[in-house]
Amino acid sequence: MGANQMVSENVPKIIGLLMLLSIASLVSAADECSAVTTLVSTCSTFITYGSPDPFPGSPCCDAMMSLDLISNSIDSRRYVCRCLMSVITTYNPNGTAIATLPGFCGVSFGFTVDPNTDCNL
C-alpha cells in the first residue's frame, strides 16, 4: 500500500471526524444558551417588576454567579454574551434590568451587559 493510497483512504475518516466535532460544538452552544436562559429566568421577578432586589446569596445572584463560572473562556464568554443579548431582547422593555444584575450580585462576566455590546470582542 502506497502513501497516496493510505492518505486517500483516511481523508473521508478525517472529514467525518471534523464534521462530528463541528456538530458537537453547535449542540454545546445551543445547550449553553438554554442554560443561560434558564439561569436568567431565576431573576424574572426582578427583571419584570424590579423587586425583590437581588442580593448576594439569593437564587438570582446564585444564577449570576453560575453564569460567571460558565463564561470562563473567551469562546464561552462570547456564547454567554450572545445569549444574554437574546434574553435582553426577549424581556424588552425591561431588558435593561438584566444589565444591572451583575453589579447587584457582585460579579463581572468580562463584558458589559448592554444591548449594544459587541459579543465578538
TrEMBL record:
GO terms for biological process: lipid transport. Keywords: Disulfide bond, Signal. Coiled coil: none annotated. One of its GO terms (molecular function) is lipid binding. Residues 33-119 form the Bifunctional inhibitor/plant lipid transfer protein/seed storage helical domain. Residues 1-29 form the signal peptide. InterPro entries: Bifun_inhib/LTP/seed_sf, Bifunc_inhib/LTP/seed_store, Plant_nsLTP. Belongs to the plant LTP family. This is Bifunctional inhibitor/plant lipid transfer protein/seed storage helical domain-containing protein. It comes from Lithocarpus litseifolius. The lineage of its organism: Eukaryota, Viridiplantae, Streptophyta, Embryophyta, Tracheophyta.
